[in-house]
Amino acid sequence: MSGGTDEMATAPDATAAAQADDTPDASSGLGRRLQVLGWAARAGAADYGTVFTWKTWLLGWFVRMLAQVLFFTTIGDLLGPGQARYLLIGNAVALVALHGIFATASTTWELQNGTLPLLVASPSSPSLVLLGRSLFWLPDGVACGLGAVLILAPVADLRLTVARVALLAALLVLVAMTSYCLGLFLGSLVLTAADLRNVVSNAAFTVMMIVCGPEVPASAVGPVLGRIGDVLPLTHGLLAVREVLAGRAGTHTAGLAAWETLIGACWLAAALTVLTWRARRSRRDGAALFLS
Asked: Would you say 12 and 49 are in contact if contact means Cβ atoms under 8 Å apart?
């Protein structure tokens, strides 16, 4: 599943984002931070644009993602009534989380491109640059997950309404963001060990597939693994999606979404803490400019 991330490692980097702090339009601290984040996101989108056109994305990447969900949905159809629907929803939402976890690999691209020392030496925050660097994965993941549900719903006899699709889209955006926060945290840990980026991201996603409920209910994996799933993105967001698509959206669904948001915020705080600490350490004593 990690093959799509490495193809862009040689594309243009995000160092231009570091210059945003010096532009005259940024009149406040918040304005400067948003400008840095925006430039980083634009640089990441430019990277993505060197790999895919809308045609190659639709006929290549999206079809690949759709085939994966269809595979599990077909297995569910063989298992018994309701199983196709369960696996369709689980694997479609898991696709969204997968794209967020891709940030683990793309966070290391600045090191591969040789531009990470320049980010550390710049007056901007490397944490903000790296936060915005991989945001392009979010719309990609949401499009794949939502498209899979819409296209394969008839296969699993899943009834959709406009209201359900709207709530589904909102929850998929939430899952994308929370999973991205986890991916960014893992990326901060392997920032100077680029060879481990795909190992770590694949391991993390495998754990999520086991304990977060895409394939089997979280209760089926036991209390210990269930506790692990409780602190990971996807678990509560997926439960909320299942309630929405079953026509049971309510206060409990909102509570699940709130828990998903809180978990994502915690992973984001952890990621920014690690990135900020590493940047300060490098600026203070060299620390091989993130190279050790």
From this structure: no
Asked if 39 and 143 count as a contact pair (C-beta separation under 8 A), the reply is no
CB 130, CB 110: distance < 8 Å: yes
Predicted structure pTM score: 0.87
Q: Is the pLDDT of residue 288 over 50?
A: no
Widest CA span of the chain, in angstroms?
63
| pLDDT tens per residue across span 13-32 | 545 454 444 444 445 778 88
Report CA-CA distances (Å) from 259 to 127, 128, 164, 194: 25, 25, 20, 32
Q: Which residue has the tokens 């940030």?
A: 103
Mean pLDDT of 241-267: 97
| 148 and 95 Cβ atoms separated by less than 8 Å | yes
Q: Which residue type does 35 have?
A: Q
Q: How far is CA 156 from the centre of its chain?
A: 26
Residue 235 C-alpha from the chain's centroid: 14
